[in-house]
Amino acid sequence: MSLIIGLSVVIVAYDGEKPRVLATRLDGDLAALPFGAFDPDEHRTFELALRGWVKEQTGFQLGYVEQLYTFGDRDRESPEATLLSAPNDTRVVSVGYLALTPEAERLPEAFEARWRGWYRHFPWEDRRTGRPAILDSVIAPKLATWAAGNPDRLSRAETAFGLNGNDWPDEAVLERYELLYEAGLVAECARDRGLPEPDTQLGEPMASDHRRILATAISRLRAKIRYRPVVFELMPERFTLTALQSTVEAILGQTLHKQNFRRALDRTGLVEGTGEMESGTGGRPAELYRFKREALRKTGARGLTAPVVRG
Fold this sequence. Notes:
The chain has helices at residues 46-58, 79-83, 133-147, 151-161, 173-182, 187-193, 210-224, 241-252, 258-268, 293-299, and strands spanning 2-14, 19-23, 26-27, 30-31, 35-38, 64-71, 90-100, 114-117, 271-277, 287-291. The protein is an alpha+beta fold. Strand 1 (2-14) and strand 2 form a beta hairpin.
């Protein structure tokens, strides 16, 4: 039996309206995340290998990167085993990464890589303009049918999706996707089991299990934003407080209470005004701020309080 170490990466940017991820290759009409293999003879470290082939595949230069997960279980579903065309007797250890960048920059035309809004794959996750209609019109009744007569299934569904009076847990993106997969309600489940596609499309599918990898990354980022200042890796060097709040809201898929967010932000000491004003917006000029990295080095990890507006 041979061994392949596959690397995949979720590269996230915010375009002022929605979070975007970089999709590079397509499996038929399906988007795929950037992926490749680690070659121990060529690559000194996993991260150097990742940065090298992402640049080669997409023309994009990675900045902030952190390891997301490592999967090494025998006989598991593996995107690398599928998309790297590994022989049947090959065992694949998959290492996933999360990368953040302050802008969804235009990519060279020579590459197939494109930025895609991540909510096109998870339309039930964006609650910034209210409760998504798909929850009550499609997801809740289908999950109720799937869970009928099974209290454990019903409890899991209600907890994950905030049904029947439960609060919406914004960090449970992966749990929600895996429930939909288990219930046979997403296209990837039908494809993997050789079944007809579901009659209702719940978000755009992705190649292999890349939508599950993306769900893992969103879950991680939503959680981490509250205990580490990683959101600033998505911000330009100078930004308004309104832009910072809208970035946090876009990642969480939730609307935040403006005054409470500002007060909590002041207490962190992570931002300071530059004295410069935003220009060219057509509205009232707003002061530009910067992220105080030097304060972070002195005080340690601090995330941002996210006071969600309850609707």
